[in-house]
What we know:
This protein is 65% helix and 0% strand. The protein is an all-alpha fold.
Amino acid sequence: MSMGLIENWNCFILCILNVFLCSLSFSAVDFFNQVNILYGTLTEFCTPSNCPTMSAGPKYEYRWADGVQIKKPIEVSAPKYVDYLMDWIETQLDDESLFPQKLGTPFPPNFRDVVKTIFKRLFRVYAHIYHSHFQKIVSLKEEAHLNTCFKHFILFTWVSSHCFVFINVIIIISLLKWLLVRFFPRVLVLMFNRVHAFHGDVWPQTVLQNNMKQSFTLT
Ligand SMILES: [Zn+2]
């Protein structure tokens, strides 16, 4: 591969990764807003007395720790947990070193881990709503909206967690496409026994260009 090709390829991979990270960034904001609105309709029902622990059934209890002010996970009521969570997410989203606002600013190396933690904690709010407040959601006629938001959330997190596999597939397909476009003319020439000299294991640019020209003029 020539240096130009390698540079172009690196740019291509960086571009795809950047698009992926941008989609994570926008989606984190969207999902945060959706959960905020959904939970906001339940604040008068999700109280410390009704929900003394942040849980999704007896087997799943969630404790709070932000790693800065509260390093050791503490048991809190569901509304307190959601309060802590929303404040924490808002702080993360407002931190320009984590979520760059200016175009072209690189994402930090730990960006994926931060977004993963945001999504994991937002999932806990969905789990709590479904387990403890679904009947209230039904009575408020919000179940269709809740289900749509949750499906969107689950689908996106599933796709993004497998996104690097998809990116690799795209890269392989693009590489094959590039090879086909670049070397197909030579294959044509080989078929017609009009092969140019092949020097070592590197095809000089001039030979390739000649082959490409001839491949389009074969009769
Ligand atoms: Zn609750």
